[in-house]
Amino acid sequence: MTPAESERAPAATKGDSKVLNEAQAGHEPIGGADASASLSAKFAKDSAATRALAKEKLFNGDSVVELREAIRAKLVYALGKTPESARDRDWFAATALALRDRVIDACHEGTGGKVPEKRVYYLSLEFLIGRLLSDAMNNLRLVETTKLALKDLGVQLSEVEEAEPDAALGNGGLGRLAACFMESMASLSIPAIGYGIRYDHGIFRQSMEDGWQREAPETWLEEGNPWEFPRPESTYRIGFGGHVTMSANGDQIRRHWHPAETVNAVAYDIPVVGWRGKHVNQLRLWKAEADAPVELARFNGGDHVGAVAGRARAESISRVLYPSDSSAEGQELRLRQEYFFTSASLQDLVRRHLNERGDLRSLPDHAAIQLNDTHPAIAVPELMRILMEEHDFSYEDAWHITTNTLGYTNHTLLPEALETWPVDLMERLLPRHMQIIYLINWTHLEEQARQGKSDSAHVAAVSLIDESHGKRVRMGHLAFHGSRRVNGVSALHSELLKTTVFKPMHELEPDKILNKTNGITFRRWLHNANPELTALAVETVGEEVLDDPELLTGLADHADDPDFRKRYAAVRRVRKRKLAQVIVERTGISVDPSALFDVQIKRIHEYKRQLLNLIETVALYQAIKEAPHKDWTPRVKIFGGKAAPSYVQAKLIIKLANDIARTINDDADVAGRLKLVFLPNYSVSLAEAIIPAADLSEQISTAGMEASGTGNMKLALNGALTVGTLDGANIEIRDHVGADNIFIFGLDAVGVQARVGESAYAQRAIAASPRLAKALDAIGSGVFSPDERGRFGSLVDGVRYHDPYLISVDFDDYWRVQREIDAAWKRPATWWRAAILNTARMAWFSSDRSMREYAAEIWRVKVD
């Protein structure tokens, strides 16, 4: 008997009346007839919707009638539609515009026109903000008001929410983290502006064609974005190429950059509303535009295509998120993107500071600029250029301002992800910046020489220019050297920064690296994504839990209460049924909500080891085939994630997942015991459906390679138990939830480093594991690809003969812990106790806590 089956009881929720509707309609009641009657009485006496609406009115005074008429007016006068002709997309736009007005009212009321003492500027190439309607409704406390206003208009809120496209302006965790941080800064009333790119097409739309990933443009702006405000008055010229000249000003030599090409960066602002609407920040995204949309002389001369070529080249900068850099042209476009948004952002904040303060010498006192990874690392020479060329600062003064204003967050230890750029590309595209980088590096190395550290090995290690394989600029070194503080994003990651990629730099400045473990916004990932669990938490520990995530710890006091465990399990089953419906709608695969939902959702990458999960799936399939009458724990393996278009091995892993699914899902011998689902087009909104329904969270990266992770936090917060390595934030999750409430396996980071130095470890591990050898043989011989027997040979050979991610070494321990999980699922009281403790003890992983730490220790910004 599964935990969900054995602990059914009334879902003590204060939202989602579908629970009641299903019971009344004769569907499977949560907890049986008694529970259904209890729910009916509860709703009849004092419905959750009524109470929530009353609280909303107390907060903002916004009546259903007022919002209804505001939505109707936006539909008619802003969109030119009638209620009869409006589509769901029109109703979404009208609702968003009506709520946007209230966000702006909150913004004006919250600031009162005052200039903040210090403002944070968060530069990130990615902001994976997803859909914004639910955020706005929740943070303005207008969920029930909006639902009832739309109902009066004959429209369902759920359909309106589904009509909003995902703003997929990011690739994964980096971009979602930036979105969480922006929401938390607004909720904590930290004045902040996020800077990024307004991509016409964000991360691609993923579909499956015979199990292969296919990419198509994500057209999120096809019908406009009702949340944004165009700001044409905030337009900046961004230069590329050209040459540099010199002039004398007294005894000072000045250099002047003369770009060969200029592109306009035009600002678009999206308001970011904080909790209860008390503060609103802005996300400013830059769109690339040409100086002239068409060269009229060429057009009138008959060259109609060539006349718009310049516009196409300019606008390509903000056309697509992460163009493939497998070609020289792709590398150049990537660098153009990074400089484009960084330069526009710095020009904008410098202008704002001068308007507000009048003197750039005080910039470090009133501005904190955070570089989210190496993508905006060009900010170091660009801020220096602005200060020296445009405002006549000396090198020394400009360096003092720069290094006391910038901060750098590192997100990776992987060499291929720690950006470097060819010097010849930099010299051609950004010649003045390359001069400044050379000057910074010369000053840096001269200081080393004065300290007696001039041996060639030391110089090569700390230089901003790597000359080992052609000259390349080390953007990580540049960001490190040019920042006041550098931080990692988990305790392990920050320590590894000191001993691996930044070891020589850390030895020079041992106090510069800090740790700031990532966090997630509970407003999005608990309140919005899981209203049933949120309502149960409110009923159990009080309404204040919505304002203070730390109060979630009070749920731990109820983990040993059998009745509470039943209610918790019932709430989870509601979400599992909903996910089962999503799965059948998107894939045609029917899954049993009472099975263990085993989830791995993240970018497809070899170090994240989806392949390890798939090999274990094959081994489990083989074991079930050999003993079909054994009491196997029913599992549904759920995968989601996108592979970079040029990442051949990652795309092959997706194909393998789909081929395995096709085989085992149709095999009668394993029916009811094992299924595999790959959900296409993983996105923020899809994550909001998966995460609250997950029972098991797969966090199985090779130890020492995942900087932190945030999916692990979202899943644990919603009650999924983690199976993982001692990698990234998994270590801190274990420390908070307790070792008995998490499943750890495999080598730790020290063990990984030691093993990688050995030879033939993969062959020895496979020889010692008949189960692993058999699974690899099946994959390699074409059991799952009978139409192309050798399709997965490169994946199998990679494990057998190279295995840099130690799949072979960790496999047996992974198999062991998975069987422990099978046994634990059959002990419902123990399982749900652990799940409750995970939810309760994840309170520390709020991005509010992260932002308070950044504010105090990096930005030196006061938080009320």
UniProtKB/TrEMBL annotation:
Keywords: Allosteric enzyme, Carbohydrate metabolism, Glycosyltransferase, Pyridoxal phosphate, Transferase. Belongs to the glycogen phosphorylase family. Pfam families: Phosphorylase. Allosteric enzyme that catalyzes the rate-limiting step in glycogen catabolism, the phosphorolytic cleavage of glycogen to produce glucose-1-phosphate, and plays a central role in maintaining cellular and organismal glucose homeostasis. Phosphorylase is an important allosteric enzyme in carbohydrate metabolism. Enzymes from different sources differ in their regulatory mechanisms and in their natural substrates. However, all known phosphorylases share catalytic and structural properties. Residues 1-32 are annotated as: Disordered. One of its GO terms (cellular component) is cytoplasm. This is Alpha-1,4 glucan phosphorylase. Its EC number is 2.4.1.1. One of its GO terms (biological process) is glycogen catabolic process. It is an enzyme of class 2 (transferase). The modification N6-(pyridoxal phosphate)lysine is found at K714. One of its GO terms (molecular function) is pyridoxal phosphate binding. It comes from the Bacteria. InterPro entries: Glycg_phsphrylas, Glyco_trans_35, Pyridoxal_P_attach_site. It catalyses: [(1->4)-alpha-D-glucosyl](n) + phosphate = [(1->4)-alpha-D-glucosyl](n-1) + alpha-D-glucose 1-phosphate.
